[in-house]
User: What shape does this take?
Amino acid sequence: MGTANKVPGVSGGIVAFVAGFYEEFIYSLQRFNKKGFKLLYSGHFTSFYKYINGRFLSLLFLGMIISYFSISKLLDYLIIHYELYVWSVFFGMIIGSIIYIYNDFKSWNRTTIFSTTLGIILGLSISFLNPATENDHLLFVFFCGIISITGMTLPGFSGSFILILLGNYVLLLVDAVNALFDVFLGFSTGDFSVLSDPYTKKMLKILFVFTLGSVVGLVSLSHLLSYVLKKHKNITLALIMGFITGSLGVVWPWKNTIYTQNSAGNFLLDSRGKKIIENYQRYIPEFNTDTVYAIIFALLGIGIVLSLEWYGNHQKKLK
Assistant: This one.
C-alpha cells in the first residue's frame, strides 16, 4: 500500500481491496472514536490497543512506512529512466484489480450499474484536469494531507495524482520525503548537521503538517466510509469499481509529460529549479520493441494482483 500510494494514478486502497482486508481496515480506523480516545485518556492502553485492532493496524502501517520511504529514491530513479515500464506495471495492476473485483461482485442491478458508470465518469474526468501551481503555505499543505489520504481509503481514487492536480506532488511526496530520508541517513553516520540546514528544516515542517492533515483525513473519512459500507454496501462497492476502472485513464502508460511554459517558450521552474508539470498528453503507441516490453510489464502487473487474490483466498480457506 505504501508503494502504491507513492505512484500517481495508483490507489493504495486497491491493494487493500484486492488482498481482502479493505473492510477490516476501514472498520479498524473507525474505532478511533469517542470510546477509543476515552480508553486512551484514562490510561487503559492495552484495552485501547485491542479496541482499535492495534496488531493489524500497527503491522499494516509499519509495512507502509518501510515501503514508502525505501521506495522513494528508487521510484524517482525508475520513473526518470524507465517511465513507460513503471506506468505499464501499474496499468496492469489496475486491470488485474478490475478483473478480480468484477468477478467477485454478484449484486448487479440498475442501481449498482448506475453507480459503477458514475464512478467511471468521475475517474476519467479527474484524469483530464489541469494541475495547479505549487503552494507551500502550511494551511494548504494541511488541506493536501486531508485530500491525498483518500487514495488509501478509497480504491481507485489516487491521492498522489490528486497532489499533482493540487500542484504539490513533488514538494510533498518527493522533496519532503527525501529530506527526511537524508536526515535519517545523516543520523546513522553520526552527522547531525543536516538539521541546521534551512531547506531541510522547512521540508521537515512541511512534512509534519502534511502528515497531521493525513491523519485527520484518514480518521474522519474512515467514519464516513464505515457508515456507507454498512448502510449501502453494494452501491458503495459498485462506485469504487467505477473509480478503479476510470483511473485507467490516469495511468495509461503511453503519454508525454507537458511542462508549463511562458509566452517566450521557456519552461517555468519551481523553487528547486524543476520543470512544473502542466498535464499529460496520451497517445496510441506504435508496435515496436518498447511497446512489446511495456505489454510484458503490464502482464506482470496483472500477475502481481491475481497472485494477491490467490493469496487472499488461500488465507480465507486456512481460517
